[in-house]
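Ticket #4471: structure output looks truncated?

Reporter: J.K.
Steps to reproduce: submitted the chain below (273 residues) through the standard prediction queue, then opened the result file.
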Amino acid sequence: MTENALFRREGDVYLPGENAGGPWSPDFLHGGAPAGLLASVLEPAGTEGGLRLARFTVDLLRPVPSAPLTVEVQRVRDGRRLRLLQADLKAGEVIVSRASALYLEQVPLEVPPAARFPAGDLPPRGGDDEASLSEAAGRARGQAPLPLPGLHHTVRVARLDGVDGSGRGRVWMRLPVPVVAGETCSPSVHAAALADFGNGVGQLQVNPRTGCINTDISLYLHREPLGPWLGMDALARMQPNGNGLVESTLYDQDGPVGRVLQATLAMPVYASS
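Returned output as attached by the reporter:
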């Protein structure tokens, strides 16, 4: 599957592949692709000394072109118990996305039941209902899948309910290819690459002509996910000013692992032919 990776690295340059593309233009990437790349580049320095990714935030400053990209990393705070890194994703000299990643020390601790995260979970996925996210959303809405290739076709989902434009969706998801060719995709990087799909799974189409785009991704993980599948329960809401929020709870086979918040902006949508 290496040849199908989202990016191929050549020295300090990352070259996007077809699987990193977005649904609206062949010239730009899906937001999940740069998010996964930034998380992957930051991880080696971030996890030194046994620290764990606790928060990963991406500002999607501009559409990320399907073109050679570079990443510049800065250590903002480098302590024994807390490490904060920042990374700029650049196309030429233009910063197209900016990420910050917070890594925390792990300390064994007895936690009383009242202070633990709730043990709720998602229903199990079916055995034979796996499809691309584009196909699953198309079936739920009675529409054809989006025609352009890209990450929306690469990511595999088992739909539980929703994903129909109503602002609510529940799925199990997995990324079947590496983020960077020849590099192992850790559970945290896997979660970072999939976090952008909260707005797709919980897409809110407030009327036939208006949907929502997200301008950022804030992923919080209170523990590292287990297994190849990540569950997502996404809920979107919108104010009359055209600004909204998507809140997604993430799960693995043992229960909740974190949350994703995304600020959204109402945008015109056009029916696919």
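Triage note (M.O.): checked the attachment and the full token line is present. The chain has a mean pLDDT of 93.
Status: closed, working as intended.
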